[in-house]
Structures are given as structure tokens and as C-alpha cells.
Amino acid sequence: AQKVTQAQTEISVVEKEDVTLDCVYETRDTTYYLFWYKQPPSGELVFLIRRNSFDEQNEISGRYSWNFQKSTSSFNFTITASQVVDSAVYFCALSSPQGGSEKLVFGKGMKLTVNP
Amino acid sequence: DGGITQSPKYLFRKEGQNVTLSCEQNLNHDAMYWYRQDPGQGLRLIYYSQIVNDFQKGDIAEGYSVSREKKESFPLTVTSAQKNPTAFYLCASSTRRRRSFSGNTIYFGEGSWLTVV
């Protein structure tokens, strides 16, 4: 079965703090893709990153970084020096052949509040 | 600008009524999806379509219906059979490779809020 677990439901930090959002996934497939999306209060899901199962290099994009570890089935997301604009709900998602072509299985999301 | 347009943003439904949510995309994507989001929950797949005139049920299709007569359009009807329709509905689309799994990125519209009154 496919499953994505975001154990944290809500985190509150003060601006400029670093924050890490955890994501643990389950799949029997060897080829799969992992995603992170941001959902601001407006509601639209904004795509942040896509990573395939064969690429374990960590990635950095500005204040965002992602740590993919197949050994622990985790794909964690870190925001460095958080800002108020980072306040949103963040979703981790998994796409694999077992789940059906191009479909996404989502975690329940983690609400991040960054206070000034 | 290219994107996915959902309408209306807010919709109220009376008990026993069917309502239709519109979704249009101009990204030239083959695949389209409908997800439902409830407070504090992740997104759950209602229906998806990988090609015109074809669609499949997702995890929570009961009480919903869709059509895919045009590549750019994938309307969702919430029927009176859906017992708890109040939710946030998100339409999405992606490209699709026909022969192999490619985990293409799925892009989302701005969503529609449906409330039963």
C-alpha cells in the first residue's frame, strides 16, 4: 500500500527561525516520485519540488532545502530563516506505479505559522 | 497566461440539489483530476481522466460524476447522493506519457468552496 505520513500537524515559529517539516512514505515500488506543495490561505496548491527515487542528492533552492533518505523512507523539507510569507499548509505527496499512473497520494499536511 | 481556472470560487447548495464545478486548463495537459480537501485532512482523489472521453474513479467517487468531452475541460458534478459535500474542491492537471510511468508534476487550480445550506 502507498502511504504518506506527516506526523506534525501544526508548528508555530518566530520569524528567522529554521524549521523542518517531516515526511515519511511507504511504497513497494522501486521507481517513484516525491513532491512537496505549499497551500497558502488563498487555497491554491503551489508546487515546490519533485524528486525521483533514484536521485538522493539533497537540493537547495534559496531558503528551501530538501533531504531525501531512502534508507529511512523520508523526504524532509527545511525552511531556513523563516518569514511570515512562509505561513501556509505544506503537503508531502507520493506518486508511484502501484498507485496508478500519475496519481498523487498526499499526507495530511502540516500547518506552519511564522510569527513576526 | 497558462493555468487552471476553477469556477465558481464559492458555491452554496441546498439539500437535494446537484451542482457542477467548472475546471478549465490551457496548459495542453492530457490528464486532469479532481481532489477533495476537508479541514485538517490531506487531499483525496475523486475522479481522474487521462484522455478525452475516458475517466476513472478515484478513492471517493460515490456521489460525484464527471465528463471529459474536451481536452481542456473536466467539470465535476456533486450529486444529491453525496451525503457530506461541504468541502474544498481542487482541480488539477498534468502531462502524461502513454507508455511508462513518469511521475509528472500535477498542477492545481485555485479551488472551489462548496457549502450545503
Largest interface: A-B, 28 and 29 residues
Number of helices of chain B: 0
From the alpha-carbon coordinates, what is the Rg of chain B to the nearest angstrom?
14 Å
Tell me the distance between the termini of chain A.
Answer: 41 Å
Low-confidence stretches of chain A: none
Could you give the count of β-strands of chain B? 11
SSE string of chain A, helices as H and strands as E: EEEEEEEEEEEE
Task: State the shape of chain B.
Answer: globular
Low-confidence stretches of chain B: none
Total strands of chain A: 12
Largest sheet of chain B: 7 strands, mixed
Structural class of chain B: mainly beta
Spatial separation of the terminal alpha carbons of chain B: 35 Å
Query: Largest beta sheet of chain A, briefly?
Result: 6 strands, mixed
Order of helices and strands of chain B: EEEEEEEEEEE
Oligomeric assembly: heterodimer
Mean pLDDT of chain A: 92
Binned strand content of chain B: over 45%
Give the helix proportion of chain A (percent range): under 10%
Short synopsis of the structure:
By secondary structure, chain A is mainly beta.
Strand-helix topology:
The complex is a heterodimer of chains A (116) and B (117).
Chain A: E1 3-5, E2 10-14, E3 19-21, E4 24-26, E5 33-39, E6 46-52, E7 59-61, E8 64-69, E9 74-79, E10 88-95, E11 105-106, E12 110-115
Parallel strand pairs in A: 2-12
Antiparallel strand pairs in A: 1-4, 3-9, 5-6, 5-10, 7-8, 8-9, 10-11, 10-12
Chain B: E1 4-7, E2 10-13, E3 19-25, E4 31-37, E5 43-51, E6 54-57, E7 64-66, E8 76-78, E9 87-94, E10 107-108, E11 112-116
Parallel strand pairs in B: 2-11
Antiparallel strand pairs in B: 1-3, 3-8, 4-5, 4-9, 5-6, 7-8, 9-10, 9-11
Report on the architecture of this protein.
The complex is a heterodimer of chains A (116) and B (117). Chain A has no helices and twelve strands. Helices cover 0% and strands 51% of the residues of chain A. Chain A has strands at residues 3-5, 10-14, 19-21, 24-26, 33-39, 46-52, 59-61, 64-69, 74-79, 88-95, 105-106, 110-115. Chain B is mostly beta strands and 117 residues long. Chain B has strands spanning 4-7, 10-13, 19-25, 31-37, 43-51, 54-57, 64-66, 76-78, 87-94, 107-108, 112-116. In chain B, the strands form two sheets. In chain B, strands 2, 4, 5, 6, 9, 10 and 11 form a seven-stranded mixed β-sheet that branches.
